[in-house]
Amino acid sequence: MGLVARAIEKAGIPTVTLNMIWAYQNLVGMPRIAAIEHPFGRPYGDVDDAGTQMAVLRAALDVFVRAREPGHVEHLPFIWPHDPAETNWHPSEPSPIIAMIKRNQKNR
Amino acid sequence: MTEPHRVDPWRFAGGFLQKVLSSQIPDEPTHGPIPWTPVTRPLADSKVALLSTAGLSMKDDVPFDMEMERANPTRGDSSWRKLSVRATSADILANHLHIDTSYILRDLNVALPVDRLHALVEDGVVGSLADTHYSTMGYQGSSTRELEQKSAPEIAEHMKGQEVDLALLAPV
């Protein structure tokens, strides 16, 4: 995603990237990051939680106004209402690469 | 006064994924200069486009290719799709093997807040909507070359053609 943000920014359009694993995705260097502690698959909030979705959208859009220099990282204050142990985001079966890594570890 | 919240990037990742991903983060940044385009007009006068990496496609469009990734786990579909700004969960497919996509299929706004953005345009907070929103599929496997050299510039070019002022991107 960082690569896409960079290309869009390079073309003359400012970008904000709303980002959960910002420390990893920022490896490529992103212009503006709105970091958020939400589970994978639901960056803006939970199903039918229009209030949180709107608040996150507005907070992310506000980063356009506040960021002054490239590499800006802003930590959004949203707290997911459930513990990670009670929050499912995983696919019903492990992704092919995860399955492959685990298979290789087992065979080592 | 309380300390400002600092986002823990690994809170939901789990130990295994954290280990795999954090081992790839160097101590010092290795990227070159970060591109920068200053924001020159107020949000209320700006045309906004959304982009999600959830592998979203309109049902009448070609879906993202999951069979290729199943056959070769080190590869991910590097193409991109245009999405109707009026899309709902009923109009789209979500193809992404690394997340539970069922939430998106119940409420598209969890990953692409089309309805919320419409409301902001109606309220005058945001100037206008782009003609389309966009999706890629986040997992690129061992090579980001095609995404970087083909899809990313194509998306940027398309946004320019639509006179998009601000692009809000959200990986899933």
> Helix count of chain B, per DSSP?
5
Q: Let me know the average pLDDT of chain A.
A: 94
Structural class of chain B: alpha/beta
How do the helices and strands follow one another from N- to C-terminus of chain B? Answer: HEEHEEHHEEHE
What is the string of SSEs of chain A from the N terminus onward?
Answer: HEHEHEH
The chain-level structural class of chain A is: alpha/beta
Helix count from the secondary structure assignment of chain A: 4
Largest sheet of chain B, in brief, is:
5 strands, mixed
Q: Radius of gyration of chain B in whole Å, from Cα?
A: 18 Å
Short structural description:
With 108 residues, chain A is an alpha/beta fold. Helices cover 39% and strands 12% of the residues of chain A.
Keywords:
heterodimer, A: 108 residues, alpha/beta, three-stranded parallel beta sheet, 4 helices, 3 strands, 39% helix, B: 172 residues, five-stranded mixed beta sheet, two-stranded antiparallel sheet, 5 helices, globular
Q: Any overview of this molecule?
A:
The complex is a heterodimer of chains A (108) and B (172). By secondary structure, chain A is an alpha/beta fold. Chain A has helices spanning 2-10, 22-25, 50-66, 96-107, and strands at 15-19, 32-35, 72-75. Chain A has a three-stranded parallel sheet with strand order 1-2-3, with helices on both faces. In chain A, α2 links the parallel β1 and β2. The radius of gyration of chain A is 16 Å and the shape is flat. The model of chain A has no long low-confidence stretch (mean pLDDT 94). Chain B has helices spanning 15-22, 66-71, 102-106, 114-122, 145-161; strands at residues 47-52, 56-58, 81-84, 92-94, 128-129, 132-135, 166-170. Chain B is globular, with a radius of gyration of 18 Å. The chains are: A alpha/beta (108), B alpha/beta (172). Chains A and B meet through α1, β1, α2, α3 and α4 of A and α1, α3, α4, α5 and β7 of B.
